[in-house]
Structures are given as C-alpha cells and as structure tokens.
Amino acid sequence: MGKFYNKVAIIGCGAVGATIAYAMSIRSSVSHMVLIDINRDKAEGEVMDINHGMVNFSPIDIYCGDYSDVRDCDIIIVASGVGRKPGDTRLDLARNNVNIIKSVAENIKPYYNDALILMVANPVDILTYVMAQELDIPSNKIFGTGTTLDTARFKYYLSEELELCINNVHGYVIGEHGDTQFPVMSSINIAGQPLDEYCKANGKSVDINAITEKVKNSGAEVIKRKHATYYAIASSVCRIVDAIIKNEHAILTLSTVNCETYGLSGLSIGLPCILNADGISRVIPLKLSDKEKELMDLSANTLKEIIDGVM
C-alpha cells in the first residue's frame, strides 16, 4: 500500500476550484483541505459556505490559507487562471494564464515538500508543461487533467448512441485537451467487445467522426449556454484524486511530460497513464493507426507552437 493522502490544497477558488472543493467535501475524499486564492475574501466565503453544510456529510477540515499551507500537503490542485470566454479556444488562454502559473510556481517553491501536483487550469497541457519547467520536480509527480474530461464526454455520447450504461463503454481520447484531440479506435470496446463487432452483432450504427466533433465542441457549447464549465471537470478531478489516495494504479488519460513512449518530447500532452499514490508510474502505449499517428503529431506540433510562443 502507498502512503495515505489526507491533505489537499486547491489554488484558485473561481468556479472550477470552488466546485472541486465542494465535490471533494461531499465525497469526503480527504481529511484536510486548504483553499488558497489571491482574493482571500472569495476563498473564505467558499470555505464558510461549504462548512455550513458539513453537518449533512462526513465532516472534513476545510479552511482558507496561504501558500505556506502547502508545505504539508500531499496533493496540490492548481485551478488558477482566467476563464475561457465564448469563442475562445483553450489555446487562446495560454499567454495570460502562463504568467499566472509562473507566479503560482514561484509562490509554491519555498514550501514545496514532495507533493503531487495536479494541474486543472486551461490550457492544461501548456500549463502543465510550464509548471513542470518552473518547479523542476520529478516528472511523475506533476500532471494535468489532460483528456480525462474528453474521454468521459466521449464515453457519454457513445453510450447515448448505443443506448447502454456508460460504465460498459470503454475507450480513450488522447492528445491535446482541445481541437486536435482524437479517440484511439483500437481502444474502443463495449464490455470487452470491439465496437465494430458489437455494432454488427446488435444492429447498431454509430458515427465516430460526429461523436468526436461533438466531444471537441462540448466545452464551447456549455460555455455558450452557462458561461463556464465546472461540474464535469470537478468530477474528473475527484476521480483522479481517488486514484491517488486509494493507490489504485488506475489508467487515466492525463497530461504528462513523460511522452517519450509516443516519440514525443518538449511538451505535455494527454496520454493513458497508470496513476497511483506516487504519481504516474508509467505511460501505456496504445496501438495507433497510421492516421492516428498523424493526428498525434498534429496535436503535439500544435502544442509546441504555443509553448514556443510563451516560454
């Protein structure tokens, strides 16, 4: 068994950070949680609001703090940054949020003590790479949410098409958390049966290209209607935290700088990773078709262009 993780810091208490805090409180995922934000009043308000309902759940110790409180944290969740506006791509956020993340890194450095760092702020691939460069810590200890949300959305839309429980639909979306992401066809199966075989045996037909486009546009569609996305990403963060604190060795599509398995370097990108209490133990090499290899190169090059422009 790995060590028991019981204290988490959430840096950034906007809609995403606050929702993560609330979701983790409801689940009683950890025993201690500290919220940190440049707007201390906002962080204090979120803490008060969550604590006022704690009687209805298994209580945890949640409080407002500052960067010195990360010194004894086991997981640091970084949700700082400006939000995505209608019409923006995640990469449009890069230049503003890179400066914010560099500032966060400088504030973490004096107190960093071997915690795992989970990047949530967008564009998550770019910001994960920036944070990894700024902190210069072991690469297994820093990772982003990557394409965990895109994979969840893909499974949801595919399950809707097939009229099946989402838990029986499997597959991975990898690459950039953005416009160049793509599903790996060889990874898609229904309760262990390849998708094409399942569809043929059950008289079903699905348009994977249409689902892929729907997944890519999901964030923008939510933002158009409610101005921000935060529930689904919060649930993805809870899933990642569970994999850590329970030492699950779960396979999740995280943004990682350990991408040599796919012939890549100098970036962070969403790949299937084995995650446990020590962080990422290894990256799983999926079987990519020639077309998927081209898509991976496109995704990597898209991210590298942005990195070159902001580093």
Task: Provide a descriptive summary of the structure in words.
The chain is 42% helix and 18% strand. The protein has 311 residues and is α/β, with parallel strands linked by helices. The protein has two domains: 7-144, 3-Layer(aba) Sandwich (Rossmann fold), CATH 3.40.50.720; 148-310, Alpha-Beta Complex (L-2-Hydroxyisocaproate Dehydrogenase, Chain A, domain 2). The protein has a six-stranded parallel β-sheet. Helix 1 (15-27) crosses helix 8 and helix 5 crosses helix 7. It is globular. The mean pLDDT is 94.
> What proportion strand?
15-25%
Number of alpha- plus pi-helical segments: 9
How many domains comprise the coordinates? 2
Largest sheet features: 6 strands, parallel
Number of strands: 14
Overall helicity = 40-55%
Name of the CATH first level of the largest domain: Alpha Beta
Q: How are strands sequenced across the largest beta sheet?
A: 3-2-1-4-5-6
CATH fold annotation of the largest domain: L-2-Hydroxyisocaproate Dehydrogenase, Chain A, domain 2
CATH superfamily annotation of the largest domain = Lactate dehydrogenase/glycoside hydrolase, family 4, C-terminal
Name of the CATH architecture of the largest domain:
Alpha-Beta Complex
Q: What letter string, H or E per element, gives the SSE order?
A: EHEHEEHEHEHEEEEEHHHEEEH
Which class do the helix and strand fractions yield? alpha/beta
**How many angstroms separate the termini?**
39 Å
| Average pLDDT number | 94
Query: Nearest-angstrom radius of gyration?
Result: 19 Å
Query: What is the 3D form?
Result: globular
- Uncertain runs with pLDDT below 50, 5 residues or more? none
